[in-house]
């Protein structure tokens, strides 16, 4: 699996990540959601460079055809609820003609630090032969991403898989390299070295879902 780490080449992603991590800024939910969207927009643009294009003649108002390059792939944007929603919206602003899929994956705690990943909802078009872009802002262990991908495979086999995450742990990246298709590509804003006893990324940024939408019971 090829890994694209945006942190290796500082850009606007670095600026938005700094704001998302900063405890003095991240409590502004509107700004936090917008930063997720903006990073999604940048990721979408970068992924677009990796897609296949076809030549198309487009008639202009001057009555002349202009040869243009247009995307020649059917794209499905898939998102893991709930923090993934604004991240997904950033992708959708650029891939505005894409089909969409949604997966509900959450941690069901048995004890304080013992949990399992549960999936309760899946809505997806047929994925056969299409390009799947699977988004989740935080990639801590890789378990939610793995189960979400397996759930999506019940809707067909994509021709290509792109995984997008704002912050990932090194452990999760290594895990996905072992279990995802060899030709899959991972796009990540930054890779942090550690996860703590609660399986939160360190230094990370906290609970992205809570920061985007408020705390939950």
Description of the molecule:
The chain is α/β, with parallel strands linked by helices and 217 residues long. Helix content is 31%, strand content 35%. The protein is built from 6 helices and 12 strands. The strands form 3 sheets. Strands 1, 4, 5, 6, 7, 8, 9 and 10 form an 8-stranded mixed beta sheet that branches. Strands 2-3 form a two-stranded antiparallel sheet. Strands 11-12 form a two-stranded antiparallel sheet. α4 (143-152) links the parallel β8 (138-139) and β9. α1 (12-21) runs antiparallel to α2 and α2 (29-48) packs across α3 (84-94). The radius of gyration is 18 Å and the shape is globular. 35% of the residues are buried.
Which keywords apply here?
single chain, 217 residues, alpha/beta, 8-stranded mixed β-sheet, 6 helices, 12 strands, 35% strand
Summed up, what is this model?
The chain has 217 residues and is an alpha/beta fold.
User: pLDDT under 50 segments (min length 5)?
Assistant: none
- Shape, per Cα inertia axes: globular
Radius of gyration: 18 Å
Portion of residues within helices: 25-40%
What is the rounded distance between the termini? 37 Å
The fraction of residues assigned to DSSP E strands is 35-45%
- Report the strand count: 12
Structural class given helices, strands, pairing? alpha/beta
- What is the overall pLDDT average? 94
Task: Tell me about the largest β-sheet.
Answer: 8 strands, mixed
> SSE order in H/E notation?
EHHEEEHEEEEHEHEEEH
User: So how many helices?
Assistant: 6
What's the structural blueprint in terms of helices and strands?
Blueprint: E1 2-5, H1 12-21, H2 29-48, E2 53-59, E3 65-71, E4 75-81, H3 84-94, E5 99-111, E6 114-123, E7 131-135, E8 138-139, H4 143-152, E9 160-169, H5 170-179, E10 185-192, E11 194-195, E12 201-202, H6 208-213
Parallel strand pairs: 1-10, 4-5, 4-7, 7-9, 8-9, 9-10
Antiparallel strand pairs: 2-3, 5-6, 11-12
Helix pairs in contact: 1-2, 2-3
